[in-house]
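Students often ask why we bother encoding 3D structure as a string. The short answer is that it lets us treat folding as translation between two languages. Here is a chain of 344 residues written in the first language.
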Amino acid sequence: MAPDAERGPMRLRAGLRVLRRTATEVQVGTDPRWAVRLTDLTPADADLLMSVDPRTDLTELVARAVDVERARALVAVLVDARLTDARPPAAVLRGPAAVDADVWSLLRPDGDGTRLVRARADRVVAVLGLGPTGLGIAVGLAAAGVGTLLLDDERPVRSTDVGVCGYRWADAGSAREHVAARLLRDVAPHVSTVSDRRPDVVVLVEYGVADPVRAPALVSGATAHLGVVVREADTVVGPLVVPGTGPCLRCLDLHRSDADDAWPTLAAQLRTGATPSEPAVPAAVCAGIGAAAVLAHLDGLVGLGAGVTYEVSLPDAVPRRRTWAVHPECGCTALPASLVGAQG
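And here it is in the second language, the structure alphabet:
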């Protein structure tokens, strides 16, 4: 298959490796979702394939092979397995977003991870609450190519905030949102922290319990939002609420009230008092889960799924998945998603 004006050189998809299993068998890739084994090869076939990496032009490889037909058949196996890419070369992404693009080039049927990542530059995400978990989510989104991040948290950085998610000892005492903006620019120099556009997603990082006012306002305004609640000894990530579909944060509170008559009284008290500190390891895990959930939504993919939360706590910090249903008394899904926020 010779390249033409609409095609580029045929190559392995970015990130794939060719590995020798035996003298007559090689494996391309290691992930069970796409890895293939080529068996019953001649030693010459195996040597030819072992010379291939994602920079190799497979068309030229066939042309210079001793047995052209055999080489063409081997390349055809790779093409049929969707392990090759013949798209015209695109402008190269640089920085951490390039890594995302390479992985998505393996995950997407069309192999175009670069286009998916570049589309994130036009997205706006707001992060409200910039403790270690919130900062980690914001940094993760910036590193993955999200173009605009709106940051809101005037509270000062505390010494207990210092750690893996980004804050340093020198930041203690400075406003979290100002330090976070600087850290984002260090990771992604072209990221913006100002926009008049309504966010595509709002991340609500709260303490003790979800705010009873902010989340319903986002539902009525048809704004997708991710709830993150840092509790006494664990953190809950989710659900990612797409208004009109699946349970909202109020649904979860109503379920808790059904299970415990005193929950409204407890929740009112949890909204006051000192902000708890966030252990470093759960904060890092939750930041990864939260950033992945937001990116999946921005990319038009299935992320957490409706009503899904993950609870992360020490000592193992292994996320524990829960699924919540819409509460019949909430009314958040009473209208079609297309009409949510269209009233008034």
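Translate back mentally: Residues 11-85 form one domain. Keep this in mind for the problem set.
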